[in-house]
Amino acid sequence: MKKYLLLILFTCFFAFAQAQPFGSSALWFDDLNDYVSANSVSAAMSSQGAMTLEAWIYPESFETQDFVLTFHAAAPDYDNRILLGLKSGVLVAGYKTPSSLDISSYGTNTLPLNQWSHIAWTIAANGSSVVYLNGVIEIDTFTVDVGAWPESEGTFSIGQDYDGENTTDHFHGLIDEVRVWNVVRTQTEIQNNRSDVLSNPTGETNLVAYFTFDDTSSGTLTDESVNSNTGTLHFYDGGDGTPENAYQIASVTDLVYLSQHTGDWNKNFLQTANIDFGSDETVVDWNGDGIVGDAADANGFFPLGSSYPSTSKFTGNYDGQEYSISNLYVNRTGSYNGLFGYNDGATLKRIILLNALVNGGDYTALLVGNDINGIIESCLVSGTINGSNYIGGLVGQANNVSYNRCAANNITINAVSYIGGLIGNVNNTASNITNSYATGIINSGVSYVGGLIGNFWSPSAVTVNKCYASVSSGNKGFIGFASDYNNVSNSYWDVEVDGINGNSSGDTNYGAIGKNTAEMKNASTFTSWDFTEETGDWQIENDYYISYPYLQAFTYDAPGASPEINPIPGLATTPVTWTGATDSDWNTASNWNPAVVPTANVDATIPASGVTNFPVVNSATTAAVKNLTNNSTTNNAITVQAGGKLTVNGVYTAVNGAKIKVTGAQ
Fold first, then answer.
1. How do beta strands 508-509 and 231-234 pair?
2. Are 464 and 489 in contact, with CB atoms under 8 Å apart?
3. Confidence at 637, pLDDT banded by 50, 70, 90
4. Which of 263, 241, 276, 254 is nearest to 30 (CA)?
5. Rounded to 5 degrees, what are φ and ψ at 49?
6. Are 257 and 236 in contact (CB under 8 A)?
7. Which one has a higher pLDDT value, 666 or 382?
8. Which residues of 95-133 are buried (b: 16+ CB within 10 A; e: fewer)?
């Protein structure tokens, strides 16, 4: 199957700026790669001797060429063609045969932008043709070579032309009420019927195809005539949804389109670029209806998958390929909210969801509200969740799942019960959670609250291995509640972050071991974890910087980034102490322990004793430190030579009154 670089089409259900003279829905084309194919129309017309093409169009901009309805010969040459569209805003009708160049005829009136216009083209058996604009003759001196007639193996498209195998000259705006007839309609018939929806299309004997665009949620376009010439919407950025050729998601419009088309929720998806909804959710067309800021947009993104009907659950596969989705906004009051609302048997991989805000009722999380029989691997989320019950950073409720290398990083949760930093509730059947963590804050939790998991129902078949939590939850522990359960291994939680007056280092919680912050930032605590550089699951900073363990699969903020979107968990600088082991040069790393020259955000200490070489900032060099503590009893233990510069960004503390010796300009 040929691959096309395609973008998105949107079904539009709204009141247009100009009163729409027919049904209540239309199809929006974004001038990039949108089109509809209904090639069986070409086959049906190949044996006919005449035709009439009709459409209502609502152009939003004009390019050099914007085609509305086109017939082409079969691949690979697409040579024969009949084309109806616009050229710089003027109607154009054209054709080409294998033996001719492109031959076109043009109207004289420029169509108005952002208004509805009706266009029609009749072609008789002898090739004589007439083009109408709003029922009035626009072109009537144009003869079409019958050698350009549609072929049985040819193509019929709405919204584009072909240049070889590539789609081109895409229409920008709305198209509705496309009709293809196998007779020449009279001017009177066109005038009298153009503003009316056909009341009995299956009874129209000369009607080959009739597209009203009333429902495109399944990704197809219904032919309302008796002939069932179903159209296919070409959307996303490529692919066909199969495992071998997944639909490509590369933009906000791709993702919004997916949210509005439940018929695709059993397909395969591959994200191919970073996607950012922007910091202002009020300027996003969240439901893809072509209007920004209407009442429907206040609800934000529509989660992929819902509980009713059962066919609306997300059952497909989504591979984010480590591209990010930033600033997702979901603002709903019902259940099942997140990027995905309700999954059943879905596989999610390598999704990075940053700075998301999800507001909802029960079963709400950043990634999946409710997950049944699912696999989640190498996925990271950050952001804020406001919900009620069964609320998690990653997943609200999980049932019979397998999660590996997942992170809820720097999250904030405001909810009531069954709340976990990673998962709110794990329900009933066998599940495995490995190599995963949660960091952040849980507020307002009343019951069944845990740093990693809020609650287990029937937990005997659930295993948790090599996981940790550093979540401020008011002394709730690693798991909020799990009756008769002790199947956690090699897992830890930070008791200092968990609660000021809570657990202490060495305490256990359903098999997890409590550690203080210093222990949680020491690789020796995690004896069985794989910290192999590049190939292992985990990484930890234990030198110049210190941190909690973090997953190597993801890219984190650079140290000191502001604002923090995806920080390395628990990242802090290690205070350094002067040793003078090599010489007296302040800027020699081996003179410090650890062996790193301090910078403007690092605290440094000069010890009280045991130093032979005292630090010197040499001439023509600079040095910086955050807070500098001088414990030395030797005055002038620190020297700044002429032309040198030492900057203390915080506080200089001379414990024994020692001064800094300055031999020149500071």
1. unpaired
2. yes
3. confident
4. 254
5. -105, 0
6. yes
7. 382
8. bbbeeeeeebbbbeeebeeeebbbbbbbbbeebebbbbb
The CATH number covering residue 174 comes to: 2.60.120.200
At residue 524, does pLDDT exceed 80? Answer: yes
* Distance, CA of 62 to CA of 384 (rounded, Å): 42
- Its domain, for residue 505, covers 268-525
- Report which residue type is found at 422: L
Local confidence band at 78 (pLDDT 50, 70, 90 cut-offs): low
- Vertex 554 angle, CA 550 and 559, to 5°: 65
The 10s digit of each residue's pLDDT in 256-269 is 989 988 888 999 99
Q: Please give the tally of structural domains in the chain.
A: 3
Q: Tell me, what amino acid is at 475?
A: N
* Contacting residues for 91 by C-beta, under 8 A, at least 6 apart: 84, 85, 106, 107, 109, 111, 119, 131, 133, 138, 139
Any idea which residue has 């972050």 for tokens? 497
Closest C-alpha to 375, from 405, 332, 353:
405
Average pLDDT, the chain: 89
Question: Same domain, yes or no, for 227 and 309?
Answer: no
Beta bridge partners of 370: 342, 397
The number of C-alpha atoms within 13 Å of 18 and in the hemisphere containing its C-beta is 14
What CA–CA distance (Å, rounded) separates 38 from 301? 30
> Which pLDDT belongs to residue 2?
22
Does residue 313 fall inside a structural domain?
yes
CB–CB of 76/102 below 8 Å?
no
Assigned domain for 239 exists: no
d(CA 369, CA 362): 8
